[in-house]
Amino acid sequence: MVEVKNLTKRYGNTTVVDNISFSVDNGEILGFLGPNGAGKSTTMNMITGYISSSSGTVTVNGAEVLDNPKKVKSNIGYLPEIPPLYVEMTVRKYLEFMFDLKKVKLPKKEHISEVMRLVKITDVSERIIKHLSKGYRQRVGFAQALLGNPPILILDEPTVGLDPQQIIEIRTLIRSLGKKHTVIFSSHVLSEVSATCDRIIVISNGKIVADEKTENLSSSISGEQKLRLDIEGSSSTVLDALKIIPGVIKIRKQHDTGNNTARYLIEYKNDVDIRRDVFRSIANAGCVILDMQSGNETLEDSFLKLVSQDQTKDITGGKR
Amino acid sequence: MGAILKRELGSYFNSAIAYIVMAVFFGFAGYFFVMTCFISNTSSLSYTYSNIFVIIIFLTPIISMKTFSEEKRQRTDQALFTSPSNLFEIVLGKFLGAFILYGICCLIFFVFGLVIQMFTPANWPVIICTNIGLLLLGGALIAIDVFISALTESQVIAAVVGMAVGVMTYMLSSLVSMTSSSVPWLSNAINAVSFTNYYQNFTYGILDLTGVIFFLSVIALFIFFTIRVFEKKRWS
Predict the structure, then answer these.
(1) pTM metric for this prediction
(2) ipTM of the complex
């Protein structure tokens, strides 16, 4: 269990992390989302005790990071943004060193082999890290964080620079780790966080702008549902047919797409599903639906909305 | 600490660093040995010992320059400082790694002793005593160089500044003669921190307690300073 209370980091007059509070329960996978430079890495560095906070506390399994750093640090496995690899060592030698450095009490050889198997680096165990590809290096960094089976894993942008195949592998790995560990991981890629996390914290300019269960995040921001339609038929007929459907709030014709076809956007109430009504009504009016998409705001939209809201506040005199 | 020390020694001996440092040290020490003992036909190693000071000034920064600067550049310091090992262990491990490599270099003087032994009985107590002085002198310089390395991300800067500091400690004694008549208190003060003065006593075969304490204090002080550098960095 990780508890962050009123955490703040200032460098001179710049506030990088501004009074953030949240807690992560055991076995939860928390996504830390924000644009580059939002303060994600700084927050993680404070949780892991690499840098100290200007004010506020971080409590990990009952121990405060500045009062009892040893206990906190032995409870956390940390993969920083740039994996801390000694590139002149072989993978096995490196993991043996990290094992000793972390003062892990498990049987050394077996544990290292087990971790290497888990992140699939057994076949490169005797190779020098310098010669490994980015994907393998990232996994060696991962292995390092897993040594000693720490109950909490903190991963700073673990998938940056990997190819799609590797990203999927790492995601699957994080998912499987989430069963046994508490995982906090950061990213600026939304699809990644939504695919992996139970809960998402969106951070922008050092402040938390949203803290929601993944499935709630987009609907909680948008308020109403949207439907996007490509319909063949004259605009007036289509608009008339749509208007009579109960639950519809607003209909907007976006643009003509040629061949007597146009794209429409319908906003409707959260608690009804109007798709069947739309289909029947349009069919009755003698028009044809070519494409219907549940235009429920994507996570990407809500993220941008959140972040830009925060920035406009800044421009209009909000405190940084 | 054991983990760090082991890795440090590994990084010296699994690369060319240790062997080049040793080769250079042995080469110059051998040269001084031949020039002072063979050519001048003496069994005293004291000239060899005092000449080697100059080489140590340049070699200790080379040994220590990477200790922390390289960690910072590669971002591996994040692994060190987020591990349950505390700062003292980390800094001491780094210091000892460099110091052990240096200590191995100093063993060459026992070889010189054995060479002398072949011709005439060598003065072993003096050799042992001087070697202690040599180790202490090098230890103090390494502690300073590790501290300098902790201040920068660049190995080159760490080496150059380390050498400058070394040369300065070497030149302090000449400042003494310049200031002794005009500003006596200054020359006294300089004398009290002059590495060459303390070291010179050892080369005469005197196990000088003030010298031992002086060098040990310098080592302790700069290890402490190094720890403070990282503590300050975390807090600022």
Answers:
(1) 0.83
(2) 0.88
